[in-house]
Amino acid sequence: MAPGRDFSRAHGEFAVDEILIAAARITYPGGVDERKSRQTPSAPEPTDPSPGVPTTRRGFLKGVGATTAASLGLPGCDSSPIPPLKTAGADATTTVCPFCGVGCGQVVYTKADATPRPGGGDGSELLHIEGDADHPISEGTLCSKGASISQLSQNERRLRHVLYRAPGAKEFEKRSWEWAYAEIAKRLKKTRDETFQARSGKRTVNRTEAIACLGGAALDNEECYLLVKAMRMFGLTYIEHQARI
Question: Which member of 86, 162, 226, 238 lies 3.0 to 4.6 Å from 212 by CB, making a disulfide possible if both were Cys?
Fold first, then answer.
């Protein structure tokens, strides 16, 4: 409340400055001299302990910060050259993390002529994956699985060929992808033809209940869309998806 402004009408038509003056007269009947005598003596001004040493708070913090940075070897004090970014010259592509239903945005950096790494395949080399800061859902953040998603392709333990174990066999044997595609198509058609149901009573259903499809967390939205369309085309009714962390 500023001096001179009217006090609340519930306390009468007194001005604030008049109330303060009255309170001061009651507290210090002797006037200004008595008020000064009651005050606690102020502390003496600090003296400069040594020339060149800052005594202000700002100067003290500057000195401490510079000393700490020099002792820790922070980048501002290191004269060694900064290594180039591993994503320099790479192609940046935005995508969606496939691990769960949140759909966090990611930026994938690839380079066609990158040096091959252990477990890497042919074609473009995956260099780095980071969160997409422009994505409206995640705003650049990723969980631990999303941040390490590059291991889906860059992993020494990733299978690079088909392993097939025949009925009754104890060991797996390597087969080509072409053989696997043909074998899957042959078994899918055989099972569908044997179990296909065109009608149920008077209703047309065009379905098979002998085949089921279970999606996985490594499939992105586009792959899931194509997978469901293909399974519906075959007449599947049991379609499920696992996308939980």
Answer: 238
Residues in CB range of 56: below 8 A, 6 or more apart: none
Assigned CATH for 91-152: 2.20.25.90
Return the SS3 of 213.
strand
Digitized pLDDT (tens) for each residue of the chain, 245 residues in all: 444 444 444 444 445 556 666 666 666 566 555 555 555 555 555 555 555 554 676 777 777 676 766 655 555 555 677 887 777 777 888 888 877 777 888 888 887 754 554 444 456 777 888 889 999 888 889 888 888 888 877 778 888 889 999 889 999 999 999 999 999 999 999 999 999 999 888 999 999 999 999 887 777 778 888 999 999 999 999 998 876 64
Q: How far apart are CA 195 and CA 169, in angstroms?
A: 28
Nearest partner of 128 among 143, 112, 107, judged by Cα: 107
Cβ–Cβ under 8 Å, residues 227 and 215: yes
User: Cα(59)–Cα(162) distance, rounded to whole angstroms?
Assistant: 68
pTM over 0.70: no
